[in-house]
Amino acid sequence: xxxxxxxxxxxxLAGLALGCGAEGSADDAEAGDAPLEGRSEESAADADADGDxxxxxxxxxxxxxxxxxxxxxxxxxxxxxxxxxxxxxxxLSGTATILVAPSSAPGASFEAGGLDVRSxxxxxxxxxxxxxxxxxxxxxxxxxxxxxxxxxxxxxxxxFEGLSRRGYVLDWPNHCGNVFPCHSHPTEGQTFTLEVLxxxxxxxxxxxxxxxxxxxxxxxSWAMGQFIHQEVGTTTAGTRxxxxxxxxxxxxAAEGMADLPAVFDWYERTLGPYPFGDLVGAVAVNWPPTAYxxxxxxxxxxxxxxxxxxxxxxxxxxxxxxxxxxxxxxRWEDLVLSEGTVCYLAARAxxxxxxxxxxxxxxxxxxxxxxxxVAGSDRVAWPDELTDPVELEEFLFSRSPYMKGAMFYxxxxxxxxxxxxxxxxxxxxxxxxxxxxxxxxxxxxxxxxTGFDPTVLADGWLRSLGSPAP
Length: 470
What we know:
By secondary structure, the chain is an alpha+beta fold.
């Protein structure tokens, strides 16, 4: 979905959008429920260009569009543009105000498998809805951009499937429906606002109040705890880096983040402007002791308390601001475009900022991990469509896309030069920031920018088991 340069705040839309059926007709609307005039520039332009999408500002003159009630209709293809989310932890309830785009078909659907949906409302009245097999279907006309207010309850989930009793939200890859009505597919991007209420004292919640660039659903999160805030540094672009750690892990956090200002500065200068604000950093979350690593909840990536001192974890998660979050993947099978690219960038950034020894150490670690993968549970790093849910889940939690992806990029850099590959990655980010892309798009960009066709390297590293012969 192309980036948008302007969007009317949902607080304003809630007073303008029409209801979902006869109760929301323009004749019955009060002044605060006037036809929507503050559409995003993209929606207005698309409507004018298509010619077959009714102008929402003229809805009062299109009585038949609004007069009939609209029964719930399945339509997971209806695009989500923006979500305002208010979470009340004391009540275990949420209010999601969801702005959806016009569609060629009526209705709108959202994943809501872990939610108790209590009401769905257009500003002029309630909408008809039903929850079927964890999918929330709402009745509304096809031809309008509309704001829906969904009131719901939710529950704590087992670790890594939503809100954990250990004080964090992690819903990657497809558990956002346990936290808010959503589309979990990675190609879907929307902007967000978030407010978390009812945090039990003495804890505090750390989260981004706004994601103003299109982001995948799994990027939204929050963490709770008795955090200690530490300033880390500032990049030449003015981006501040911080860390929220916990008692007893202050020194580890400082050591793990010490090189991040230089690394993040290199990312900004090499790849392009960071898309998610001017304050970034890490949060030490209370993952189970058996879990290690981090997750890309930009601008505040989460890192297990046991990994908060691990420099490579931070360098890796920071790079997801450009690949994985800044550029979404077009399908889950394109995970290598996120994780493989980021693994390569982490090694490259350390070499450019800390020194050749740090880069060499990183590649040695990658090579050892790859050898273990090939000797054990080897997988193709860039598979064709995986239709079996079990097979897809096993792929998503494998490390093959990470390590084989990094090795693919290193092989490309050996052919075209590392500085030239830096330029290609920057061009790719500039072309796809705020959008979804696939790994084939990356191969095409490498070929177009450098004249070198990376297909043979991709077949050997990404499309095959094992690893190519030296």
